[in-house]
Amino acid sequence: MPRAVREQQMMDAAVQTFGRRGYRAASMDEIAELAGVSKPLVYLYLNSKEELFTACIRREAKALVDAVRAGAVPGLPADRQLWAGLRAFFAHTAEHPDGWTVLHRQARTHGEPFATEVTVMRDEIVAFVTGLIGAAAREVHHDPALPDRDVSGLAQALVGAAESLAGWANETPGVSAKEAAATLMNFSWAGLENLMNGHPWQPPTLSGGRAR
User: Fold this and answer.
1) What is the pLDDT of residue 198?
2) Beta bridge partners of 205
3) Sign for the pseudo-dihedral over CA of 58, 61, 63, 65
4) Phi, psi of 96 (to 5 degrees)
């Protein structure tokens, strides 16, 4: 078997083991047995448990980012692109629950260098969503009224909500990727649309002009 194929086979086994057992509890013996290879071969190819876990994070992160980018077809209206990107995100996390667990739970709770790897992935997705929201604003206003800071903050909030919702969807029987994406669109797009049309929510004020 070619080295690259064997390596991916071992990483498949590693993602499943890390996702279900956790980084600390997972053993190289379990990973080797699941992959159908010897433990020395796992070490020969992937050096150490830490390096194996890092390689798994990078592979799963790239696959998720690629899926989201591929889902949001260029040329569509911004809301349709966001909808397609969200559907792709939830479809991917549903189809790869162990990979999502590795990214969203395991990597973030075991410190460096793992958390940094996930931060790189998240920053890339936030930048992509920021571009979609900015494009939506340009569709509404030839000279967008939304400051960059507002657009960036909205993207951070949307990505954070998607991450939480993906965990809920994977643990709730019967929730499809389409339903999860529709839930988030219903939650977010109405507010985004109002904001981009110049109707932001404002806190109520007291008679003296102070916000309540």
Assistant:
1) 63
2) 211
3) negative
4) -130, 65
- pTM above the 0.90 mark? no
Instruction: Indicate the pLDDT class of residue 98, thresholds 50, 70 and 90.
Output: very high
Report d(CA 20, CA 36) in Å as an integer. Answer: 18
89 within 8 A of 162, measured Cβ to Cβ? yes
Residue 144, pLDDT > 90, answer: no
Give the pLDDT score at 199.
65
Query: What is the length of the chain?
Result: 212
- Please state, as a whole number, how many other Cβ atoms lie within 10 Å of the Cβ of residue 140: 15
pLDDT at residue 164 in the model: 92
Please state, in angstroms and rounded to a whole number, the distance separating the CA atoms of residues 202 and 77.
Answer: 28
What is the chain's Cα-based Rg? 21
Q: What count of Cα atoms within 13 Å lies in the side-chain half-sphere of residue 124? A: 16
Q: Say how far apart CA 31 and CA 42 lie, in whole Å.
A: 8
CB 96 within 8 A of CB 63: yes
User: What letter does residue 110 receive in the DSSP assignment?
Assistant: S
Write the single-letter amino acid at 172. Answer: T
